[in-house]
């Protein structure tokens, strides 16, 4: 790793290298730090750098600030010949740099993980507007949503330049805010308009809009009484829709389900959901399915579940779980289908308690979520569901939902007023 002389910026000549640290805390990223003390100015010994492979990626320009010690990060690793732009992460340092606002902004601009390119717009009520620069898409650390998780959120899909089911998602957000005792920062109509304008400003015609309401910034106390004003944040993630797999496997979660009081709200406390998904991934599965405290089928970590049994679509009742917008829309469309197709595809739709035994003996199983609509489940706890293939009713219901997403009625499709460039 230690090979060539890096080119030193002119500003550094005449400084003294006090300490050099090599931090290899990520496999693709070796960051070399050199700490300089300006008091002991002599000359940077070339030998100190002779051996570094890479180029100087950042130099703290707070050189003249106190303490008169600063740190230079040198990106020293390459990943398949492409230089990685890793943040400077020390394992030990004499002093940590103190950055100005401009320097922080420039540091944030250097973060280049691939997903950042898909963050095409963010609204923040704290700044009172929209930014298109991912580096500026930040949230104050003293916002109650950050340090206490006191916030609610929702996500709506954008497809072909339309927001799908925006009203259902906004209604759920407002319900969650009321349950979490978060006053609304704006009226419903203003909030809705901000969301639509955020998508319009992004220019993204595909992807998802995620938005949060929080008790807002103002202090670090447990009570939100210090928070000055509720905040609204929204970010457009301009990613192409991923078609659902032809069949995924699930496990029964070994992570305890949330108490129903919390499961019915969409709050930012998703630790059980994240741990449950990790549990699934550890076992080679896509999602983990929760049972409620009485052993009935509840939901998956961020999806609802549904079954087809003897011509009936079965969906767990929503009183102890999140009421999924996709699942609710599917109920409406499936009921129309049963009425119009005289039971050819489905005879009945039932939203009720479903025992584990009934679910495990179902002919078909599916996961329901806005981003994918309907995902067929072909294996559960290592056993095939039905004949182990995506079921015909499940595939039909996906097509039904996809048609609604792309050609549904105006009440579920909000055209985004993009400004032509
Ligand atoms: C816990 C939980 N259940 C169900 C869902 C499905 O909801 P929707 O269909 O509105 O995406 C989600 C999605 O966010 C979720 O987080």
UniProtKB/TrEMBL annotation:
It holds the Pfam family Aminotran_4. It comes from the Eukaryota. InterPro entries: Aminotrans_IV, Aminotransferase-like, BCAT-like_C, BCAT-like_N, Class-IV_PLP-Dep_Aminotrnsfr. Keywords: Pyridoxal phosphate. The keyword Membrane does not apply. The keyword Repeat does not apply. One of its GO terms (biological process) is amino acid biosynthetic process. Its cofactor is pyridoxal 5'-phosphate. PANTHER family: AMINO-ACID AMINOTRANSFERASE, D-AMINO-ACID TRANSAMINASE, CHLOROPLASTIC. Belongs to the class-IV pyridoxal-phosphate-dependent aminotransferase family. This is Uncharacterized protein. It comes from Riccia fluitans.
């Amino acid at each position: 790793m230690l090979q060539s002389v890096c080119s030193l910026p002119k500003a550094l000549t005449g400084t003294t290298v006090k300490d050099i640290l090599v931090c290899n805390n990520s496999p693709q990223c070796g960051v070399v730090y050199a700490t300089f003390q300006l008091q002991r100015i002599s000359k940077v010994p070339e030998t100190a750098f002779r051996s570094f492979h890479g180029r100087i990626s950042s130099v703290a320009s707070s050189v003249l600030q106190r303490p008169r010690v600063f740190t230079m990060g040198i990106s020293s690793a390459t990943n398949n010949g492409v230089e990685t732009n890793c943040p400077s992460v020390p394992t030990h340092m004499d002093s940590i740099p103190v950055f100005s606002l401009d320097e922080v902004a420039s540091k944030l601009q250097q973060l280049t993980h691939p997903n950042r390119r898909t963050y095409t717009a963010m609204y923040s009520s704290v700044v009172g507007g929209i930014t298109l620069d991912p580096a500026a898409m930040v949230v104050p650390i003293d916002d109650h949503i950050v340090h206490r998780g006191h916030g609610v959120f929702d996500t709506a899909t954008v497809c072909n330049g339309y927001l799908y089911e925006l009203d259902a998602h906004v209604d759920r957000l407002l319900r969650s805010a009321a349950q979490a005792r978060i006053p609304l920062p704006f009226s419903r109509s203003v909030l809705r308009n901000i969301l639509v304008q955020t998508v319009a400003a992004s220019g993204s015609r595909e992807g998802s809009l995620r938005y949060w309401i929080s008790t807002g910034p103002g202090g670090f106390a447990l009570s939100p009484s210090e928070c000055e004003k509720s905040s609204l944040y929204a970010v457009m993630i301009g990613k192409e829709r991923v078609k659902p797999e032809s069949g995924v496997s699930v496990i029964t979660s070994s992570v305890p389900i949330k108490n129903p009081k919390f499961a019915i709200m969409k709050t930012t406390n998703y630790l059980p959901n994240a741990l449950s998904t990790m549990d699934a991934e550890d076992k080679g599965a896509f999602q983990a399915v929760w049972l409620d405290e009485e052993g009935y089928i509840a939901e998956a970590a961020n999806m609802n579940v549904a079954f087809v049994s003897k011509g009936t679509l079965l969906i767990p009742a929503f009183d102890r779980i999140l009421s999924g917008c996709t699942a609710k829309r599917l109920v409406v469309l499936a009921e129309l289908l049963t009425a119009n197709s005289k039971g050819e595809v489905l005879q009945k739709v039932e939203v009720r308690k479903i025992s584990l035994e009934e679910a495990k003996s179902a002919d078909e199983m599916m996961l329901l979520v806005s981003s994918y609509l309907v995902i067929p489940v072909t294996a559960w706890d290592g056993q095939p569901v039905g004949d182990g293939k995506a079921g015909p009713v499940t595939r039909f219901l996906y097509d039904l939902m996809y048609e609604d997403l792309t050609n549904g009625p105006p009440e579920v499709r909000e055209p985004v007023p993009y400004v032509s460039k």
